[in-house]
Queue: 2 jobs
Job 1
Amino acid sequence: MVPLAWLVVAILIVSGIGIAGAAVYFATTASGATSGNLTITDDLGHRVTLPYDPARVVVLGPSIMDSMYRLGLRSHVVGVDCYAPAFGGLSSDYSPDQIARWNLSSSMCIQAEPTFDFEALLAATPQVVLAATFVPAGALQEITDTFRIPVVVLQPPTLSGIEIDVSLLARIFGVTAGANALNTQLATELYNATVVGANASSFPTVLVTYYVDANGYWTFGPGTFGQSLIELAGGSSIAANAAFEYPELSGEQVLVANPHYLVYATGFGLNESAYTSAPFWGQLSAVQSGNLTGMDSSWLTEADPTMILSGLPALLAFFHPSSLP
Amino acid sequence: MRLRRSSPWALLGAIVAIVAVAVTLSSFLGTVFIPPLTALRLLLGLPNACAGTSVSPDLCTRWGEIVWQARLPEIVLAVIAGAALGISGATLQGTFRNPLADPFLLGISSGGTIGAAIVFDFHVGQVAPDLFLPLFAFIGAIATGVAILAVAVSRYGTVETLLLTGVALASLLSAVLALLLLYNPSGSQQVSYWLLGSLGNASWPVDGIAVGVLLITGTLLSLFGRELNLMQLGGDVARSAGVDVRRVRIRLILLASLTTGVAVAFTGIIGFVGLVSPHVVRRIAGTDYRYVLPGSALVGAVFLLGARDFALLVYPTSLLPIGIFTAFFGAPFFIYLLFRRRAGSPMGSL
């Protein structure tokens, strides 16, 4: 039998190993990337040193891919995020339209979920990884610490942050003229929306839903880009005071709120027929009066230039058709 | 099978050899195809490892990193976690004299999941996620183990009380988990992945910590073989042979909780390894816990590594949660073992 004293010693040793491991871990973390000729601060506040105008870039996030494409940087992208190739691959993260427009192929697929595939990332031999925050933070840390590949996190906190990220990409790739042109377009759309909002006599109540089930309607709550987009487009979301960021409103709640306008997200296998089974769908005034429209889900959910250049004008035109400049 | 009566140590040696061969072969398997000979050269650190292939020097360097920094740490973690779950399962089955006991029966996994859910839901430790996730999971698992121990040291600490307390705690913690996910559904996907187990967190520092802990707890557990053998004959017999049953039980639960906690911390929930491995060892090496304990560690290592390799063979370009495959293998195999059980074995009947 092992005496209790031995057990205490064992626990102390185990604790010691844990502390030593943590020390090794932090020592590894502190060293970071050291080579490169450009240092920037990403959206998480991390200072990242990376090669200027890298030729081989892995993009982990459709929203970043959108900016890269609009800045004429598609040829730099050697890999993009995807779900497990055996269970959806690219088509789980990118719509058919995005795959076609951005000329993405399954050979570029780097599995980000359910487990990050470091082998696929390394095989793409990227100089830099651009990532959104849906990628597990532990995986991003591993890419930086173990494989010494600089990681730039691009996750704008607000709609105006999209312009900041475009400028950041311009610094990394030296495409200032293109970025200025894109940012001018973004600023124009944001300004137009502000003018419409200021001139609007009222903000109609709206429900923007991206998924429904037998219990109700999933929508955007406070603090989300979807909510910001609705407000900017001159709408008053019936989920504006919800307790969660992405709440599910029950059929009863939606029926009582009875929004003037209803927007449902399409793409990724969703169309109007998928929504008609939602509770009280046919009894909503917006449905009965035809004040409903489908909209590409990427316009509503991905914080990128397309959200402002396509999503915002589409919502404005829907909510305030007579107020457009 | 009669091998067990002739040379159980030879059998253990054979399993060690199988582990070594499995580790080498496993390094050939990954989501990126590397020619096996090249992978072997890279593994051995030979110069010009990519000679004979058409890959660029840059890609060859990355292949080296794939083998040494991505693939091998994952393989080692599979071996360690499998061994940890295997020996914990054997320990708990012996301690509770219950063939259905496994490291997760006492709610240890549920505790670990709560720790992980707190990290996912409240974005705890974003500055060092590789550290905080396993740390919180470990704390959650150990806290549950300590709660069980509190019952064990009380005067109500019978085998039945302990088992039922574990079941009740697991249910309670499941409710807490559901509440956490309702509070912030954004973490639900990560938690669901966690519940399926993964080797994706592997790295050399992680492996180092896990190896260190397993060496200590595994060695100490293996020293309890004689006591466990006597405890299978009943408490009175064990006590008459000088075994302080209550004290031994507390120590075994503590060590098994520590061992399981480390596995859970780094891999999430991987089912069936702890349940099946001891049954396999008893089938081939007999019921002597001096062999069952180390044997279960070895079989657990082979089992988890085999599940990893099988997953990559079936889905060569995808990394899928490993717990799915241990369940696919473990459940039918466990049923097979039950139907083939030997009459008269202390662990043979349910």
Job 2
Amino acid sequence: MSHWIMAPLLLPLLAGMVNLLLVRHGPGPQRLVSLLTTAALLPVAILLLLRADSGEIVLYQLGNWPAPFGISLVLDRLSAMLLVLTALLALPALVAATAGDDRRGENFHVLFPLQLFGINGAFLTGDLFNLFVFFEVMLIASYGLALHGGGRDRVRAGLHYVVLNLIGSSLFLVAIGTLYGIAGTLNMADLAIYTTTAAVEQTPLLRAAALLLLTVFALKAAVLPLHLWLPALYSAGIAPVAALFAIMTKVGVYAILRTFTLILPVTGPGADVAAVLPAVALLTIALGALGALGAHRLTVLIAYLVVVSVGTLLAGISLFTVPGLTAALFYLPHTTLITAGLFLLAALIAGRRGAVGDQLQAVAVNPGNLLGGLFFLAAIAVAGMPPLGGFLGKLLLLQAVPPPQAPWLWTVVLVGGLAAIVALSRAGSSLFWRTEGEGVAGTGLPLPLLTSTVLLLALTVALTVWAAPLTRYAEATATQLLRPQETVEAVLGREAGR
Amino acid sequence: MEMLASLVVAVLFACGAYLVLRARTFPVAIGLALLSYGVNLFLFFTGRLVTGAPPLAGGAAATADPLPQALVLTAIVIGFGMTAFVVALSLRARGELGNDHVDGAGEER
């Protein structure tokens, strides 16, 4: 049974390798392999979720070398939830790509599963150095996917993205080296023991490592002021890739959550992080909202909403309390799925509007009532208006804030939500109502793209309907995260936890 | 010895940081290479500087830590591959954008 933990890693890795061999045979067999493996990831992830929901922290030692010497994979509630979310997001993104975007280069079906391999690995690993390795796997695949299709805008945005992330990787290695130099281990649970019992003279180095790690993860998560690469990259990439990238920023959020609850807890050497993070989160929301208001293209607008969502998630996480983490974890799947759905919807709208694409200017083409209705639904969901799940997530967040911080957070979150509504209604009215001037209608609605969009929007509605079990799960996850000694005991045995 | 080692890492980082802030893709690629050299040396030095010591624990005697060398090996492979990728991407950007400015902006602008 415990070998199933390897499946979310082995399935996409195998699919990527098989697809590499199938490159000469055209897109047909490759599509089949990718679709089958991505679809198979979902039941596997759900199986693991059910296992993790019992509260058990499952440890898998590769090659049966005992921790902390061997390579550990750790499955807890948080990683199981994110595995399911990745699988739920990957399938619609892949189906959308079969509308034709995957034929713009021959390696799409090699890179897509490898990207999933990196993401799943980052969620499962129990070792800081392997987190770095899986980050690199994920990033290398994402460089290829971001450039998929070629063209000036993609190359320009891709170059910035690659250079920034290489600098980020260097800093990550410096942080890892610092931690190894003082602790002599990189196993997360083993580090957790060390950092809580470290001598006073080690504290400055631990604090430096904590802030370095925060910088690296903030770059991946697109937190202010390291968010500037995101809007250009996400708006330049093809829609299915942008939809899949919706989970990439959440990998950074995951890493922040994991590091500062387990390895460098905010009650110990991570204290600086707890001091910096709330302000940074609120500034991220504010700047993301301003960017959304100023966007001149629909995809840029959605990309800035991704920045806002990262800020909202971190606002919840930065409280490091059960209610705060619950709110963030409840909001996370909702915001990931809806932003991905919006990227696909933007591609549908752009396809209908011909040469103008997703630019927010008037043309004589109405994208149609179906797309209008979908856009309305998605706008309500992403802006956090009742009755959809985004509203519940923000409500949980507002309730979770302790009174001293409440004025700041309430103001920024609510005004940020208002800005999102203004930006989306402005975009919606110029896309659907201002049908004047010249313009030639584009193609019809590609069925795979439409199906995926509807599926992603339906999933966000489903998350609202099943809000009660999701809240319960999020709360259990938050409780588990704030008891890092449970993970330490699961990985290193009962003695070590004491 | 420790002083010299840390100075080398510091100089590599300083030069790398200066070069990645340049506006042309060629110095940026060189800067990234220098940064990764600095990081590799730093990782290597985290195993402490000892000479002539056996690589595995042998009681009370001083030992060399083999793990940073394994980490460095992984970091070298990834860093080398990524430097090659940046060079290829820079050439592509030179072709697509018509110049080697990192923002694709030419002198005429």
